[in-house]
Each structure stands twice: as C-alpha cells, then as structure tokens.
Amino acid sequence: MKSIKLVTLTASLMLAGGFLAGCTSDQEKNSESTTVSTAVSSEAEVVTSASISDSPEVIAKALSADGNWIVAATKDLTFESDLVVDGEFHNKGDEASDIYRKLALYTQDDNHTVTGEFTLTAPKMVINSENFNIVNGTVKGDIEVNANGFVLNGANVEGNITFSKAEYKESADLAMEGASVSGDVTVAE
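Structure tokens predicted for Polymer-forming cytoskeletal protein (189 residues):
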C-alpha cells in the first residue's frame, strides 16, 4: 500500500513539476487556473491544491463549498454578482489542522516579499466560511460576514462590513498588518 502511495505521490509531483516548468509569463495572462499540488510528508499522499487564477469564474468556483482552502488571484477581478465564500476547509487542506481558508490578492517572490497586489470588485462578498482570511490587496464592495474568525491581513476594504451576529464581529480581526476598512463596520442584529 505504501509503495502505491509513493508511486502516486511521485507521479503527481512529476506532473506538477513538469507543468510548472512549462509555464511562461504569457500563460499568466490567460483565464485558466493553475493547480499546484501539496504533499503531506508523513502520509506521502497528495491532499490538497490551491486555485490560482485571473478568471472571475474560476475564483468564484474555488471559493464555493466545492473549492479549495487557498485561492489566489493573479490580476484585478470584477464580479457582476455577489461573491459567496462557502464551505469548511482546513489549513493546507489537512483535516487534522485547524479550520482555515485564505484568499490571496497578491503575488510574491521566492523570499515571500509581496511583489504585486490586486483589487477584487463585487457588489457584495458573503462570507460563510469560518476563519476566512483575506490577505493583501483591496476589496471594493460590501462584505457580509456569517461566520467566526474573519480576518483582514494587510487587506483594504472600500465598502462596509456587516456581521450577522455580534459574536462574529467579536471574533474578527480587521486590522492585522495594517488592514483597513473605509466604510462602516456594523452588526445586523
């Protein structure tokens, strides 16, 4: 059984490595998503992937209940309808880890230095996933939060944030790493 897992892991990593080696800067401009596999070394199994895209359709699907724990934009995105973040996900896709979900609105270099930030524009973002973290970039539009642990990490919101319950607001962090909100922060109750 372990040899099957090892062969599967090796084949997956070779496929991912070959795919990534063939990427060029021209491909960053297209609307297809790139999937990067992550391995858990203790089990030697591929357990999750990140959705990285410049397509609003791909990002919307990746943030759905059928999506991924980490979603990253590669350019500014505009949504014509509300963007809903749904589902329960765990850090690095490992169910033994804490519940966590991340939307990265930035790019970084090999030293993890932010090299570019992006703007996500939507009439409203509805957050139903617990411990959802928006990292860097800007959200233009209102945000409705229906879950505990919402975080803005270096991100800016040009709009209002409404929490459906006081406990959701109390569990939120809207100022991590210089994050800001230009509109009102309220509780709907």
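The two ends are 53 Å apart (CA to CA).
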